[in-house]
From TrEMBL:
Domain of life: Bacteria
Thioesterase domain: residues covered: 49-127
Annotated protein name in UniProt: Hotdog fold thioesterase
Matches recorded under NCBIfam families: unchar_dom_1
Annotated InterPro entries: HotDog_dom_sf, PAAI_dom, Thioestr_dom
Protein source organism: Adhaeribacter soli
Molecular functions per Gene Ontology: 1,4-dihydroxy-2-naphthoyl-CoA thioesterase activity
Length: 139
């Protein structure tokens, strides 16, 4: 990650007044090539049958991949935006928290690819996602 002050407190402040805050997503760990977070499985993230909504899992995945990508670039010159995301929903969850870990697979000059594994409180794989990020110059 870049040498900028990327403390968890600073990164979590980026959530304010966004969907990330509304869904209760919280960043929990940052490393040189990964970012972790958690999301509650409750009324905000349920689908009508009382299960974790697949779109909420994708929101967690995109949040982790996007922020992770941003941490690898000079934020004064570049921004990272999503090009494509996919998700395989493996196991249902009804309550508690899910935990995501985004790991960079490719960090190029103009694109990055991140894999995001979302697991349950018991460690079961809930969702496997991959996001491709474009690295663009700020105007």
């Amino acid at each position: 990650m870049q040498e900028q002050e990327n403390t968890l407190e600073k990164l979590n402040s980026w959530r304010k007044n966004t969907m990330v805050e509304h869904l209760g997503i919280e960043l929990t760990e940052v490393g040189p090539d990964f970012l972790c977070g958690k999301m509650p499985v409750d009324h905000r993230t349920h689908q009508p049958m009382g299960l974790l909504h697949g779109g909420a899992s994708v929101a967690l995945a995109e949040t982790l991949g996007s922020i992770g990508a941003t941490l690898l670039v000079d934020q004064s010159k570049y921004a990272c935006v999503g090009l494509e995301i996919n998700a395989n929903h493996i196991k249902a969850v009804r309550s508690g928290f899910v935990y995501g870990k985004a790991t960079v697979q490719h960090a190029g000059r103009t694109t990055q690819v991140w894999e995001i594994r979302i697991t349950s409180e018991t460690g079961d794989l809930v969702c496997l996602s991959r996001i491709t990020m474009a690295v663009i110059e700020k105007k």
